[in-house]
Every structure is written in C-alpha cells, then in structure tokens.
Design a protein that fits this description.
The complex is a heterodimer. Chain A is built from 13 helices and 21 strands. Chain A is an alpha/beta fold. Chain A is globular. Chain B has 15 helices and 9 strands. The chains are: A alpha/beta, B alpha/beta.
Chain lengths: ~475, ~350
C-alpha cells in the first residue's frame, strides 16, 4: 500500500485536506487527515479497511509494508498530462529512450504524455504503433500515449489510415506542424469526426510559406534576422478555425504564440466550435527580446513574441481560452545549439521543468495551472484514466505531489535527460514536483526518480523535507 | 571598449570617437615610406571567414601586417552543418592554435557574438560582417571618411593632434537602398547617429524592416532615434543632403519579389544624372563597393562626381585599412609602440 498523508487535494472547484491510500494501482480511499496510518494510541477506531485489504492481499494476516509520502504543506493533484512531447533522448541507446523520457516526464509530474509522431519514420500506420506501444509498456514511470500523423509520411498530401489507427486506440492526430493544404485539413477533420479523434495543427507562418528563426518585429530588425510575423500565425490559425467551422470537426491548435491567435480561439469557442489550444510554458515567460544576444537556447517553435503577446497568452491560460500548457519537449544533442542562430534547431528539453514553470508562475493561478497541466489535457486526449482524473476511490492512482514553496534550479538538482538545451539550467523555479504516482506506482519521490526495487528501503530511510 | 568589437552601438559615442582619432594616426603611418609599426609584434590575428569576402579580408590582413602581427587565414564553407562540425568546434580548433584576435565573418547574423561567448579570456573577437546584422569596421571607415572630409582642416599636418572629438554634427546623410538586408546600413546608422549626424533612410517599404519607425525607436538611444527619418522617395529628400550613402543593390532581391524590376528601382532610387544635378554642389557620395553601374548610380554620374572629387569610394577603401589597424591596436595592442618600425 502507498499512503500519501498530510497534503491538500486540489481538484476543480474544491480543495480538501485528506490522506490517500493506494492499493493495486487504484485509489483505495480518501480519508480524513491523520486517520489513515496508525495514529494516536487513544484512537479507538477498529482496523481500517485499507489495512484489512492489504492484509488480505498479503494472505497471511500480516500487513504489507506501507510506503508513505509525507505531503505536509504540499498540494496533491491528479497526475499531469502532456499533449505534446517528443520521445527522444540524445546519446541514449535506442531501447532506453522510452525509459529516460518516461522518467524525465515523471520528474516533471506527468503521469501521461502524448508522444508526437514526428519520429523517423513518422508514426502513420498500425505496424509501428504496435512496436512503439511495446516499448512504451516497458517505461513504467509515465504512460506514453501514442499520437499518429494526419497524413501519410507527414508529407501533407494524403490522409493516413486514421480509421484503422483510431480502431487501435489512437485519438490524437497531428503532423506536429502546419497543414498547408486547407482542403486536406477539412477532409482530415471530417474523417476524424465520427472516429471521435482530434486533429492537431500548429498554426505557423510555414503554412503561408513563411519560415523564419524568430518573431518579426523591432528586435528581429535590429538583429538582422528574418522574422515570422505574428499575423502569419494568426492567418494560419484563422484558416484552421475556418476548417473546423466548415466541418464541425474537433480541432486542436498546437502551441499558439500570438495575442491574435488567443483572440481567434476565444471567438471560436464563443461560437461553440470544438476548438482547443495549447501553449508552451516557455512562451509564458520569454519574449523576442530575450533572443537579442543571439542565444540559440532562445530559439523556439513558434518563436517567442512580444511582451503583449506573452501577456495575452498568460491571460488566455487564466481564463481557460488556452486549454493546455504543453512541454513541447525536444531534447537535442549539445552541439545542435552551438550553430549559428538561424541554423540551430529550435526547441528545448522541458519535461522536467514545464509544470514547475507554470505552477510557479507569478501571474497564473493554481487552478488555472492545474487545468492546463492536468484536467483539461486529460479530457482533450481522452486520457483521464492515465492522468488528470478525479481523486476518488476506485479511480486509477495517477497523482502528483507539489511543493509550491520550494525553489530550485535544474543545475543544482540535475536532470534525468542528458539534453542540455534548456533555458532553465540556472533559472530559479518556484515550484517543485515532490512525488509522482503513475498507475499506482511511485515514480518520483522527493524530487528524485524512484528505483522500484529499492523503493521501500529508500522510503524507510525517511523523506527529508 | 570591451574585449571585442561586435557592434558600434556597444562602443557608444566615446568609443567611436576614440577609434576615429586613433585611425587618424594610422592614416599617417600609412603615408610613411615604410608603412609598418611593431605595435602587434608577436601577436596572432586569425581571419575566420565563413563567408567569402576578398575586400574585407584584404583590409584586415593588411592592417594586421602593418601592425607586425602574424596572420592566420581560415576559410570555411559557410554551412557548418554541411561539414558535420559545429561552429563552436571550428572556432575552438582555431583558438587552440594560439591566437590573440579573430576576425569573424559569417552569413548568419550573430555568429561573432556567439563566438565571443566561447572565446578564452584575452582573445578578442572582431565582427567582420555577420548576415544582415552588423559590419562595424565598415561603419567606422564610412564615418571616418565623412568626418575627415568635413572637418575644418581636412589635411592637417600628419599626426597632428586634433582639438575636438570627431563629430558629424549638423550633417544630413541619406542611406539609400536595400536597408533591411544590409549590415552596412545598420552599422552606418549606429556610427553616424553616435557622431550627431541626421539620417534619412530612403528605400521602398519592402527593403525596410516591417515597422521601420518602431525598429529605430527600440534600437537607438532616444536622442539618436529622433535624428533618423524614413522616406520612400529619394526625390523628396535630395535637396538638403550633405551625403548620399548608396548601398549595393543585390539582383536577387528582385527575384525575391521585393522590387518590381530594376528599371523601376533605378527610376525611383538610383542616383541618376538629374538627381546628381539637384544635389548641393558640395554633397558627397559614399558606397561600400563594388558599385553596380547603372543601378545604384548612373555610369556617367560616377565619372562626373569623381572628377569633382565628390565620390569618396576609393578613400573609403584607403581608410578601411587604417580603421582596422585602429581596431586591432585598440583591442590587442599594448597601448604603446606607435613609432616607426626601426627594423624595417
């Protein structure tokens, strides 16, 4: 049995102090504080049900060892769900990529992530799905949900076998980028509609033929770097929303970055369209001026935009116009960022920091952060059983314990991923994931990955606060 | 001056003035029978040209040699990816050979700034032109050429100390052409405004940044920004110019759809004979070279202006060596040893 004691459970619209018992992968019970583990000697209660259950499981009348997480002063929430992460790891042996990614995700509080299909080759057919799922099953620290491409080979010309893939359980389709062909986007939305699947597109100037390493504005003009105008993203977002309006399909706008896009999503929702949107945590922090020194770590996809855009994104998360904050985890080999600014690939390794950035963001409320990290993406991905679900008896135990008063840096703590392309290496983060429970198993304890063989021993040595 | 020269904006007015005064002394060195001083003897200057440029490389190499430095030349394909080697690997290899300064030229903006972050202490990085971003030594040579042309005693005694800080106060300078893609324009703007000149940028909107006013206002100090105007008509601004700074017009811009046609461009932005006539009689012309005859400037206009000594292109090149001597001396010189090289 696993007991999480002393924390405050935060769910949509309500908070309560309670202890949680987890047995056999499920939440066995949610109990009044202090009543779960052997309490004060004058407690007259009879043996508690969970102890009976544990004893029954042990089969010999003895209680099984109890793992306890002291969550005093911490928030307990449903495990996070990442709608956009790349399962990749530089310098790792192939078989280990899944495990390292899953462990990194668990360190960030995720119990589920939607693996982007922009692998090589792209995930666009059943055969690869089976292989990736086999590998994913070996990575217990985080559930890895597979997305598939919208178009065959991500080539943007013809649809992938979406129905077949949907029958096999895929519900998220994305080419992890723009779909330039508007007619094809309409057909994808139509085709996906009876399958109950979501089509995700990243609105990008690339759909309009504009590819540039940064936001077009006063900063790019000073730097002499080509820019992608915010209006190009808005035009692509408007085109995609028009396709959703035309078809009634379920559209997700992946990683918006411009204030205008936030406004378009707000209007689409007001019109009752089935449109959702996401943003990366970094876009809630950084602006184009942060790249003024040609720091390749400040190259992102989409690019960081102006202060006004950043503020609109924060407001969008707070008022739920933006449904989800995604990690867009893109670990790169170290040398990739040692290239000229316009040649260096964009992206950051972010699974371990994303939630901490959002939860510790001074302008974002706790409920908005949990909505964007946990509850809402779980609904969008249909992954409530893997993360972001209700904290109630008999529900799968996907939980995260967060210390909102703990500051830390990645440099001090170290990271699971070997990738170094993070802008947070020495930045202070204002919230820390202390523990992650994935499918009832402890994946992270006290901000460190949990080796299951040694879990109990490690726990008995005490969780230092 | 910090340990590097990446942009002129970092130097500020004082830094630029100091380099121009120093340039004056190296112009004098250049007129000696043996135009060489031992100032940088034992120092090694590497030229890292990831983008080919004969003129700039020659100017730096000549400058380094006149200061008695050793010169290491390194040329590389501009795409590091193609070689499978990162920019950093390439630089660190050269740095490991033991250098004191590296002149870096690259087609990508920001490369000298990146390399400056990887440089060991005591290794100075000089931006030899990066993408559309900056070309500070060109900006300095243009500013020096104009300052020297306009100063009250243009040919004062060789080596004479000047009373005043270099300034272009009150001068009105047009920069005409493809501004958005021009590192020369950006460095000229920084140099001229730092020296108190007024500037008018003349280009069609497609050859300017998208929001030019915002660009200028966010970039330059407020007092400098307010001395920069933007115009889409050369005819409108011609009358009261002291300097017409022409930029090289790249033919590919037409292919990119930024201008309708070359004749159309020439008709509106070229320095034609008629426009040259309308200029003030003492107005001068600069061009970073090489000139496209018949595009930026009409062929016979070149001859006419040259005959009147109003085309400063050759002087820009001459002073280019002295400017680069000043930069290298300032960055890695000991601060002494400006005398003639007694060992020849």
């Amino acid at each position: 049995m696993l007991a999480i004691t002393g924390g405050e459970i935060v769910e949509r619209g309500h908070r309560r102090r309670a202890d949680i018992a987890v047995i056999d992968g499920r939440i066995e019970g949610v109990h009044e504080p202090g009543r779960l583990l052997s309490g004060s000697p004058d407690d007259p209660d009879p043996p508690r049900p969970q102890e009976q259950a544990a004893a029954a499981r042990a089969g010999d009348g003895m209680l099984t060892p109890i793992e306890e997480i002291d969550a005093t002063g911490c928030v307990i929430a449903a495990g996070f769900v990442d709608l956009c992460a790349r399962v990749a790891e530089p310098l790792a042996l192939e078989g280990h990529v899944m495990q390292i990614t899953a462990t990194a995700a668990a360190m960030g509080g995720y119990s589920a992530l939607v693996a982007q299909p922009d692998t090589d080759p792209p995930l666009d057919r059943l055969g690869q799905l089976a292989e990736i799922r086999r590998l994913a099953a070996s990575a217990a620290s985080c559930h890895i949900v597979t997305a598939a491409t919208v178009t065959a080979g991500r080539a943007g010309t013809q649809l992938a076998p979406m129905a077949e893939l949907a029958d096999a359980g895929v519900s998220w389709f994305t080419d992890t980028g723009p779909l330039a062909d508007w007619g094809l986007l309409c057909r994808a939305l139509q085709y996906a509609s009876p399958l109950g699947a979501t089509v995700a597109v990243r609105p990008s100037g690339a759909a309009l033929g504009i590819v540039a390493p940064m936001h077009e504005g006063a900063v790019s003009a000073r730097m002499g770097v080509a820019g992608e105008p915010a209006e190009a993203e808005c035009a692509a977002a408007a085109a995609a929303i028009s396709a959703a309006r035309r078809t009634g399909g379920r559209l997700h706008l992946d990683r918006i970055s411009a204030a205008g896009s936030v406004e378009l999503v707000r209007a689409a929702k007001a019109d009752g369209l089935d449109v959702s949107a996401s943003v990366t945590a970094e876009h809630l922090l950084f602006v184009d001026a942060d790249a003024a020194g040609f720091d390749t770590l400040m190259r992102a996809e989409p690019p960081y935009r102006t202060a006004a855009d950043r503020e609109a994104l924060v407001a969008g998360v707070n008022d739920r116009t933006i449904d989800a904050v995604v990690s867009a985890h893109t670990p790169l080999p170290p040398h990739d960022k040692d290239l000229p600014f316009d040649e260096a690939p964009p992206g950051f390794a972010s699974l371990e920091t994303c939630a901490a950035v959002v939860l510790g963001h001074p302008e974002i409320s706790l409920e908005a952060a949990l909505d964007a990290l946990s509850w809402r993406p779980a609904e969008l991905a249909g992954a409530g059983h893997l993360g972001g679900g209700p904290i109630e008896p008999d529900q799968p135990a996907n939980l995260v314990v967060i210390d909102l008063d703990r500051t830390w840096t990645l440099a001090d703590r170290g990271s699971v991923s070997k990738a170094r392309n993070t802008p947070h290496r020495s930045r202070r983060l204002n919230a820390m994931v202390r523990a992650t429970v994935t499918g009832g198993r402890l994946a992270v304890v006290d901000g460190a990955p949990c080796d299951h063989a040694g879990t109990v021993a490690a726990l008995r040595s005490g969780i230092a606060r | 001056m910090s340990g590097h020269l990446l942009t002129l904006g970092e130097l500020g007015t004082d830094g630029i003035s100091e380099l121009l005064s120093l340039t004056d002394r190296f112009v004098e060195v250049g007129r000696r029978p043996i135009p060489k001083v031992p100032a940088l003897r034992g120092r090694t200057v590497a030229t890292l040209f990831f983008e080919e440029s004969t003129r700039t490389r020659l100017a730096f190499e000549t400058a380094a040699k006149r200061l008695s430095a050793d010169v290491l030349n390194f040329s590389a394909a501009s795409s590091s990816l193609a070689k499978g080697e990162s920019l950093r690997d390439t630089f660190e290899t050269v740095q490991a050979m033991g250098i004191h300064a590296a002149v870096v030229r690259h087609r990508s903006a920001g490369v000298p700034a990146q390399i400056a972050r990887w440089a060991d202490d005591g290794v100075a990085i000089v931006n030899g032109g990066d993408g559309w971003h900056a070309h500070p030594t060109q900006g300095l040579q243009d500013a020096y050429t104009l300052w020297r042309h306009f100063r009250p005693a243009p040919d004062s005694e060789p080596g004479a100390e000047l009373d005043d800080q270099p300034t272009l106060a009150g001068r009105r300078i047009a920069i005409v052409g493809d501004i958005v893609h021009s590192r020369v324009a950006r460095s000229d703007i920084e140099a001229y405004t730092a020296l108190d000149a007024s500037i008018v940028l003349v280009a069609p909107p497609t050859l300017l940044p998208a929001q030019p006013r915002e660009w200028i206002d966010c970039w330059l100090p407020p007092d400098a920004a307010k001395r920069v105007e933007i115009s889409h008509s050369l005819d409108d601004v011609l009358d009261d110019l002291d300097v017409v700074g022409l930029l090289r017009c790249q033919r590919e811009r037409m292919i990119d759809g930024l201008i309708g046609s070359v004749p159309e461009y020439v008709a509106r932005y070229g320095l034609t004979a008629e426009r040259a006539q309308r200029l003030a009689p003492d107005a001068v012309i600069t061009h970073p070279g090489p000139m496209n005859r018949g595009i930026e400037i009409a062929g016979d206009t070149i001859e006419d202006l040259a005959a009147e000594d109003r085309l400063l292109v050759t002087r820009q090149v001459t002073y280019g060596v002295a400017v680069r001597m000043a930069v290298l001396f300032r960055l890695i010189g000991s601060g002494t040893a400006l005398g003639a090289d007694d060992r020849g």
